[in-house]
Amino acid sequence: xxxxxxxxxxxxxxxxxxxxxxxxxxxxxxxxxxxxxxxxxxxxxxxxxxxxxxxxxxxxxxxxxxxxxxxxxxxxxxxxxxxxxxxxxxxxxxxxxxxxxxxxxxxxxxxxxxxxxxxxxxxxxxxxxxxxxxxxxxxxxxxxxxxxxxxx
Length: 152
Hints:
The chain is of the alpha/beta class. The chain has two domains: 2-109, P-loop containing nucleotide triphosphate hydrolases (Rossmann fold); 112-152, no CATH class. It is 34% helix and 18% strand. It has helices at residues 20-28, 40-52, 75-82, 103-108, 120-130, 134-138, and strands at residues 2-4, 15-17, 33-35, 57-61, 89-92, 111-115, 145-149. Helix 2 (40-52) packs parallel to helix 3 (75-82). The longest helix has 13 residues, at 40-52.
């Protein structure tokens, strides 16, 4: 399942669900589906359902829309902490490192995929937290990435 925070529809070929109720048939049949939540409550509902459905793969595009550095008890944070036990797989994308994503998100990640970034704050965080060479991160070709093992 893909949660598309801003509804840009950049996931060609995926079935689009317009409501939480439209997600269920695709989920039961294990078919990919795209959904653009309208609230944090909808994101929390989907995250909780993913924990209850072993084998779920959940991609949250532009996760900074649903998380911030002050997030303490969201459904996304719960699935981050428990997804290995629930045999679920959670993947987050964001263009904003640092203050927009809570430390708990990074602490729960096993891998960090870094695409080209030139934002000084992000480059400094990557260097200080994971030893990523800022020059290397800033000069990655389009679509290329660095994979950083974060600990788990």
